[in-house]
Amino acid sequence: FNHSTLIQITYLLLFYQILLAFSALIALTSAQGYHPTPSYEQPAHYAYNYGVVDDYSGNNFGQSESRDGYVTSGEYHVQLPDGRLQTVNYHVGDAYTGYVADVTYSGTPSYGPAPIHHTPIPIHHHAAPIPHHPLPLHHQTGPFFHHF
């Protein structure tokens, strides 16, 4: 190697060292610290309700529910087409007892008058008679022979 080549190699190594130090500085300043996964150990706690009653359309439905940890209880209801109100009361005691529901119906079913279906009166068309033209019977008398 000659002297100028060694100087070039030295400057090149110095450049790479500066570049490496600068990259490390940027990586350290922009790195985000460790944040553990958030804990959701608090038991659920809520209560809500809603309902719709519309006389014009006949809609009547709603629900209410409350929860404290595993213990959940609530009720929902819906107006059935026959006029009765179906109500479901439910309860969940813990993680092992599961969902327990009690379904009740209130009101008297009303089905209204049965629809009248008119059966059309059958019209019987008799087939036209088939024309029958018998061939004329021609009676010819031929010679009469007697043999004695």
Rounded to the nearest angstrom, the radius of gyration is 50 Å
Q: What share of the residues lie within helices?
A: 10-25%
Q: Report the count of strand segments.
A: 5
Strand order of the largest sheet: 1-2-3-4-5
**Strand fraction band?**
25-35%
Please give the oligomerization state of what you see: single chain
Name of the top-level CATH class of the domain at 67-110 = Mainly Beta
Q: What's the number of helices?
A: 1
The overall average pLDDT, rounded, is: 85
Overall morphology = elongated
- What are the segments in which pLDDT stays under 50 over at least 5 consecutive residues? none
> CA-to-CA gap between the ends?
165 Å
The CATH topology name of the domain at 67-110 reads: N-terminal domain of TfIIb
Structural class: alpha+beta
At CATH level 2, the architecture of the domain at 67-110 is Single Sheet
- Give, in order, the helices and strands: HEEEEE
Describe this structure in words.
- There is one protein chain.
- This protein has a five-stranded antiparallel β-sheet, with no helix packed on it.
- It has 148 residues and is α+β, with helices and mostly antiparallel strands.
- 0% of the residues are buried.
- Strand 1 (45-54) and strand 2 form a beta hairpin.
- The radius of gyration is 50 Å and the shape is elongated.
- It has a domain at 67-110: N-terminal domain of TfIIb (Single Sheet).
- It has one helix spanning 3-30; strands at 45-54, 59-68, 71-79, 85-92, 99-106.
